[in-house]
């Protein structure tokens, strides 16, 4: 990653950053905390050129670059009328581990009418390691009307009790985001090189995966609360031998820090998921054979066109689902970007494309841009 030296004196003031968010016309979020396409009135965003994600991501970056000295001004944004402003402010405070603003985040958790804002304030308290907030979080875990907020409270309680504050690498990843590197991937050209850590701290290098008749599949997933993502994990476990025989290396990628990534692979706690009847921690611990990578701040995802923070699902802004197939020469043969949470090829469909070398796929429910 290119390291960008930033001087807070050269950065725009908080109010200028928040004005960019405040005046942008975002797709709306419905009462179930899912983004709804403004023209289709369906979950997701059909337009792959939509720049909601860029506005959010760069706002968080710029707030983080201002550092601790601006924390109180960022916290003032938690009272803004625009929920998107409240969301990016809570996100930045968590990344900065702004202990001085815990009281302001607690107020959001207690009083904000929007589950999106409550959820992100709870995430921030967990990242900060706010032990004084544990009683409030336990109350929200037991009583909040939103299952998504309750879920984030469960995770934050666990990480606070473990002392698992957010790692400084997450702040560095946001500070170093460079919009000139965004959306560089081109089908038919070489895949941009990158290195990312996995959930055990080992470094995975794309260049090491390329060559020797080996194909590489990169799959950007959402988070531990995603039943589609867990089904993909099940498929990867089920199809291990078939993928191996076809010479396919796989890496799943998540735009979160270490704790959240480890929850996804069953290395922290097993939350009370509303979609799962059976425990998966034991099977994941024994059977996950591929690396699950931490794409902090979505830095690699932005380069690959995955649009980190594209739309809200379960009260969290996440990337578009994406599957990238790279051949043994390092050439990108297939790049599929989803238009809603369920829009992606299955692992079996991905394997069949590699076997046949016919790279065509469209989800039957894919959202389509409406012509004017």
What does this protein structure show overall?
- It is a single chain.
- This protein has 372 residues and is α+β, with helices and mostly antiparallel strands.
- The protein has helices at 14-22, 52-66, 71-76, 83-95, 102-111, 115-128, 134-143, 147-162, 168-175, 206-209, 227-238, 240-245, 258-264, 281-287, 299-303, 347-356; strands spanning 28-29, 35-36, 195-197, 203-205, 215-220, 248-254, 292-294, 311-313, 316-318, 322-326, 332-337.
- The strands form four sheets. A five-stranded mixed β-sheet has the order 7-6-5-10-11. The chain has a two-stranded antiparallel ribbon with strand order 1-2.
- A hairpin with a 2-residue loop joins strand 8 and strand 9 (316-318).
- Helix 7 (134-143) packs antiparallel against helix 8.
- The radius of gyration is 20 Å and the shape is globular.
- The N and C termini lie far apart (40 Å).
- Mean pLDDT is 95; it is low at 1-5.
């Amino acid at each position: 990653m290119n390291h960008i030296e930033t001087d807070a004196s050269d950065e725009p003031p908080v109010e200028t950053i928040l004005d960019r968010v405040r005046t942008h016309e975002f797709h709306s979020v419905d009462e179930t905390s899912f983004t709804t396409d403004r023209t289709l009135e369906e979950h997701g965003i059909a337009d792959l050129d939509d720049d909601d994600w860029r506005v959010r991501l760069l706002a968080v970056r710029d707030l983080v670059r201002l550092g601790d000295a601006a924390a109180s001004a960022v916290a003032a944004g938690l009272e803004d009328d625009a929920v998107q402003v409240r969301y990016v402010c809570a996100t930045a405070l968590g990344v900065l581990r702004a202990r001085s603003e815990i009281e302001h985040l607690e107020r959001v958790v207690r009083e904000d009418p929007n589950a999106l804002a409550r959820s992100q304030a709870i995430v921030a308290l967990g990242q900060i390691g706010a032990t004084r907030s544990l009683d409030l979080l336990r109350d929200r875990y037991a009583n909040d009307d939103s299952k998504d907020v309750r879920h984030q409270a469960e995770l934050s309680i666990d990480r606070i009790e473990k002392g698992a504050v957010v790692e400084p690498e997450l702040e560095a990843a946001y500070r170093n985001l460079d919009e000139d590197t965004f959306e560089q991937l081109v089908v038919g050209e070489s895949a941009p090189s990158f290195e990312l850590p996995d959930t055990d701290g080992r470094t995975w290098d794309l260049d090491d995966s390329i060559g020797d008749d080996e194909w590489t599949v990169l799959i950007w997933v959402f988070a531990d609360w995603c039943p589609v993502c867990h089904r993909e994990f099940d498929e990867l476990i089920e199809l291990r031998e078939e993928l191996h025989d076809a010479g396919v290396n796989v890496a799943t990628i998540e735009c979160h820090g270490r704790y959240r990534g480890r929850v996804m692979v069953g290395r922290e706690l097993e939350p009370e998921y509303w979609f799962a009847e059976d425990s998966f921690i034991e099977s994941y611990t024994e059977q996950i054979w591929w690396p699950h990578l931490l794409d902090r701040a979505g830095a690699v995802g932005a380069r690959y066109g995955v649009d980190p923070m594209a739309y809200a699902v379960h009260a969290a802004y996440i990337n578009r689902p994406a599957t990238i197939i790279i051949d043994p020469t390092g050439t990108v043969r297939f790049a599929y970007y989803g238009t809603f949470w369920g829009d992606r090829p299955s692992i079996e469909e991905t394997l069949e494309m590699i076997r046949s070398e016919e790279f065509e796929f469209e989800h039957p429910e894919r959202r389509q841009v409406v012509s004017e």
